[in-house]
Amino acid sequence: MSRLEISTPNKAQVVVEGLYKDLERRIEASPPGLCPVDMARAFLELCHAQTCGKCTPCRVGLWQLKNMLTDVLNGEATLDILDLMEESALSIMQSADCAIGYEAAHMVYKALAGYREDFEQHIITGRCTCTYNQPVPCVSLCPAKVDIPGYIALVGEGRYADAIRLIRKDNPFPTTCGFICEHPCEARCRRNMVDDAINIRGIKRFAADYAGKVPPPECAPSTGKRVAIVGGGPGGLSSAYYLQLMGHQVTVFEMLPELGGMLRYGIPNYRLPKDRLDDDIQAILDTGVEVKHGLRIGQDITIQQLRAEYDAVLITIGASTDKKLGIEGETADGVLSAVQFLRGVGKKEIPDLTGQEVAVIGGGNVSMDAVRTAIRLGAKKVSIVYRRRIADMTALPAEIEGAIAEGVEVQTLMAPSRIDVDENGHVKGIYVTPQMISKIKDGRASVKPTGEDDIYIPCTTLIVAIGQNIEFKHFEEAGVPVERGRIMSEKYGGFANIPGVFAGGDCATGPATVIKAIAAGKVTAANIDEYLGFHHEISCDVKIPEPNLDDRTPCGRVNMTERESCERICDFDGVENCMTECEAKQEASRCLRCDHFGFGIFKGGREKLW
Amino acid sequence: MVNLTINNKKISVPEGTTIMEAAEQNGISIPRLCYLKGLNDIGACRVCVVELEGKERLIPSCNNVVEEGMVIYTNSPKVRMNRKKTVEFLLSQHDCQCAVCARSGNCTLQKIANDLNIIDVPFKQRLERRPWNKEFPLIRDSAKCIKCMRCVQVCDKVQSLNVWDLESTGSRTTVQVSKGRNIEEANCSLCGQCITHCPVGALRERDDTDKVWAAIDNKKKVTVVQVAPAVRAAWGEALGLSREEATIGKIVDALRQMGFDYVFDTTFSADLTIMEEGNEFLERFTKGELKTRPMFTSCCPGWIRFIKSQFPHLVPQLSTAKSPQQMFGAVMKTYFAKSINVAPEDICTVSIMPCVAKKGERNMELFYEEYAGHDVDIVLTTRELTRMIRSAHINPATLTDAECDRLMQDGSGAGVIFGATGGVMEAALRSAYYLVTGTNPDPDAFSVVRATEFGQDAISAEITIGDAKVRAAVVSGLGNTRKLINAIERGDVHYDFVEVMACPGGCSGGGGQPIHDGEELAFTRGQNLYFLDKNNKLRFSHENQDVLKLYADFMEKPLSHKAHMLLHTDHNAWEMPKA
After folding, report:
1. Strand ranges (DSSP E) for B187-342?
2. Closest-CA residue in chain B for A74?
3. Percent of chain A topping pLDDT 70
4. With contacts defined as CB-CB under 8 Å, which chain B residues touch A602?
5. ipTM of the complex model
6. Is B129 on the interface with A (CB under 8 A)?
7. Distance, CA of B38 to CA of B62 (rounded, Å)
8. Inter-residue contact A474 to A297 (CB < 8 Å)
9. CA A468 to each of CA A3, A319, A411, A513, A547: distance values in angstroms, whole numbers, following the listed order
10. B353: Cβ–Cβ under 8 A, 6 or more apart, which residues?
11. What is the mean pLDDT of the segment spanning B328-341?
12. Chain A partners within 8 Å of B69 (Cβ)
């Protein structure tokens, strides 16, 4: 007789556990544009299947909610059903015995509150407004709409230079993006339904490494039009590249000694080696872009002058000033912003931090760049000071892991309270107030003080990396609309009342990603071309390979490897290793070719020109 | 060349050939449902799947190309099992009441199901029932749609009107009028190409045959019917008659047997159209009205609907002449009514057309003396004609050539070629030449405007008539038309006179013609019309004696006040959705 037994899951349970994983990956790959009412119904069915059946609201109520949702979808309901649904959902939320019930009802409740008009549309017209209009997930999620299945297929065939040509149709920074793109394209990759997303950025990096020098295409015959671009970052240079290809003459005004903006003066060399950035920039310059260095807008030149001298003006000044902590001691020596710090390094004005203790405040990518740079400059101890948890950091997980691997200390749940300054006016340390994690507000966990005493973190350099701002003053004075510190251009990049002036990139969106700036460059180039009275088309004559017909059997994703941390902290050379040719081809062969299979071959699979 | 093996047969085909084509070129037929060459190769239906040796998953043969060394089976047990399952799935959402379907016997789904010997569907049936305005000339039955997407593709790619689209996602995904519109609000040209490209009975014209039978049955009504030129080139296809056997004379015989009181050939009013439109062209041309923009023909109602919704500012460029169908109706209710001493309201005018848009065109009003009604009362498509012949149990083999009735009996070869793209232009040029120079040209002098293959872009020609040079263009298909108009509007090209037909290949490829899945017969039928023209004694519209008599006895002369009242129209008298 056994008094207790070791429980083992039965066979069905083992399989269902596997199916849960399948479903998780499937949800990950859920395409945009699905009917939200039908999705609410589908979620509810899953929720209802989880009920234990004990309590009435969950067992019966969820079923009735599903019936009502189905009636709405089938066009068999009247508008008053929505009130009944809402009341019933509320009732289940308030009366179900456990979270299985009340949280399921809460999902329906949120759906009703969030998109009631979609429910109404179904009831009134008996029809759905949704169509499956973004069939290739990677392309639709790429802000620049790069032909991802196309270049992956080209890499698969060993046509690396063609891959670069195809990428450049939508993005003139293939190498840069191969290194540092945040790859939103991978987020909903349909391959998730099989095993894991394709390593799209890795394949791009591989193509850039193996393609050799690829000259840009021929420019269209000169139009005689001249365009001024203020700011030589990724947005401005992308626009310059396409405008040159369209036959316009572009002059880029750059206040710093070299082009690239944040790519050069923000992102450290170990993430994006500058000689590789130069590969992209050289190809852009090879189209005939003129550059004027050392001129600062509002100081050396004005927007009014540029408008008078040029046929169109594009503002792409980025977000290059820093946000302040607003605490005591912030003006002390040794306290500097991450932008200042990284720009100095980028300009090769390299501070010696040997033996120093450095603290960096903030949990974003810029903060990681700052700490990992500080480590490489010989600091004895580098700490990240962050008011929330690691899980709440906005930096890419790989960047956080990289920093930790390189020996950075992470002080989480610490809110800066005041800066300690020595008698010479130099920073000595920072007092931080211990925090505890608290309620979730607007989807993000908030913090509150634990009530413990402040902790002292000694440091001789304090770097503030809590965000960037835009230098908008000159533009505001010139009549360019500015709101909440941003230049408010319209969706097409222009301004309703200032013909011929356009803006894009970080200065219009607030600090964002490089690929968003590139997309803005593409949009503004197209609209400046139209504004100038042309309709040039940008295309690429590279023939895309037919898809391979192999079975898509599950296969692991090739992740990028990195140099050993003890070795890489000694220099600023690139950290990430490129895939091998064998790895790249395997990774390329995993692509499901959503341009050919599925909806893509019917509609929206490929935009050959723009 | 690529070497591969299909069904154990070693074959060699050019690179880039699809598996389906490779098989077909070697005598191996692969069934298909959604596929339409060049138009719809999207692998939606999965009926054309084949097995590729060494691969677990089957692949559609329509849109995947051959590779060196492929070993393919088109009919293996695995393929057969999957193909059958797929068709059973389709049947579970298809209204299988074939006995009461206009496409029974000419339905690709029915044929495949029969071929696969499916005699029972093991699945629960769920039919999508959606409301549709049964009074509209174009009718969609959602319960029959198999979502092959052909209608979407032909409307997008060939006709450039995007009337159809997929709607909703998930299990409720369906084909619907795009952008949430109803068909009445859509900018549908009523060309009917979606009908002729539908593999099943989901799309059809409104059936008006019962109205015709009722009119024939009504002792108080005199039924007068006209048969359009293009009908003769196609009607026999659905009745098992060869092109040589299927004459217009036998249609006349069939219509008389059905009980029509008078039977006419629209070729007569095609000639009449040339007299009006040709003279109008010369007048506008000479006055210099066509210096910047051409005059457009006005006999195709699909085109009229298109220009009104897509290029409303160009409507004044249309000829004001009514179409041959409408002209004939007007003549029947006036000149002819008087001659047989019957009040126009006691006449029921019927027309047999290769066209769906004609059912819309007939809504146009006619006012004449005391009479207020329509030129044409009922329009039937060629398909409806063949259905009437079948329902009357007339054996087509017993039909003999009969003549049309008097007063409007003559019809020239120029009128006959109205049914092919370029025909109106050619007929007009033949008569314009005569009107300007006083002598007849060689009747084949303007054959440069004839199509040389199906699906051609616009054809343009510069024609010398007397001292003048006329720049003419001929285009068919609304996508081609849009391209041509855009080129005209951009100033890339200039023409004086442009013939437009909404359906690719002209009326012979009309949306009301017999349907042959996967085949485009417009060109072949058009050749038939040119053959009839060549062998017609009369080849000039202006020599049609009955037309000349109509002018002498009733209409006075082309463009007379009376002609304007009866034979011309105001294109702005009705509204077209502009979306």
Report:
1. 203-205, 222-227, 262-265, 295-296
2. B172
3. 100
4. 42, 44, 149
5. 0.86
6. no
7. 10
8. yes
9. 64, 6, 22, 13, 44
10. B228, B231, B325, B379, B380, B381, B382, B507, B510, B512
11. 95
12. none
Q: Which amino acid is at B246?
A: A
Q: Judging by DSSP bridges, how do beta strands A427-441 and A444-449 pair with one another?
A: antiparallel
Helix (H, G, I), strand (E, B) or coil at B96: coil
- Contact between A128 and B167 using a beta-carbon 8 Å cutoff: yes
Tell me whether residue B297 is exposed, middle or buried, using C-beta atoms within 10 angstroms of its C-beta: 0 to 12, 13 to 18, 19 or more: buried
Question: Mind telling me how many Å the CA of A293 is from chain B's nearest CA?
Answer: 42
The residue assigned the tokens 């006075």 is B556
Which DSSP string do the residues of B311-330 spell out, in sequence order? -GGGGGGB--BPPHHHHHHH
Q: What is the pTM of this model?
A: 0.90
Grouping H, G, I as helix, E, B as strand and the rest as coil, residue B271 is helix
Please tell me if residue B4 touches chain A, with a CB cutoff of 8 Å.
Answer: no
Q: How far apart are CA B504 and CA B193, in angstroms?
A: 9
What is the mean predicted confidence (pLDDT) over A348-376? 93
Least confident of A32-46, A319-333, B20-34, B380-394: A319-333
pLDDT at residue B578, as a whole number: 60
Residue from B58, B61, B142, B172 whose CB has the most chain A CBs within 10 Å, to mutate: B172
pLDDT at site B256? 97
B180·A42 Cβ contact <8 A: no
Beta strands in A304-375 (DSSP E): 312-315, 321-322, 335-337, 357-361
Residue B161 contacts residue B302 (beta carbons within 8 Å) = no
- In this structure, what token pair is assigned to residue B569? 């129209």
A154-165: b (≥16 Cβ within 10 Å) or e: bbbeebbbbbbb
Cα dihedral: B519, B525, B527, B530 (round 10):
-160
Is the Cβ pair B44, A602 closer than 8 Å?
A: yes
Residues 6+ apart with CB under 8 A from A149: A136, A138, A139, A544, A591, A593, A594, A595, A596, A600
Helix or strand or coil: residue B78? Answer: helix
Rounded mean pLDDT of B335-356? 96
State chain A's mean pLDDT as an integer: 93
Displacement of CA A474 from its chain's centroid (Å): 29
pLDDT band at A475 (very low <50, low <70, confident <90, very high): confident
Instruction: Give, in order, the Cα–Cα distances in Å from A283 to each of A214, A221, B443.
Output: 8, 19, 63
Q: Give me the residue from B42, B67, B169 closest to A132, CB to CB.
A: B169
The pLDDT tens digits for A49-106 are: 999 999 999 999 999 999 999 999 998 999 999 999 999 999 999 999 999 999 999 9
Residue A596, token pair as written in the block: 């050919």
Of B101, B577, B142, which Cα lies nearest the Cα of B360?
A: B577
List the single residue in B with minimal CA-CA distance to A38: B170
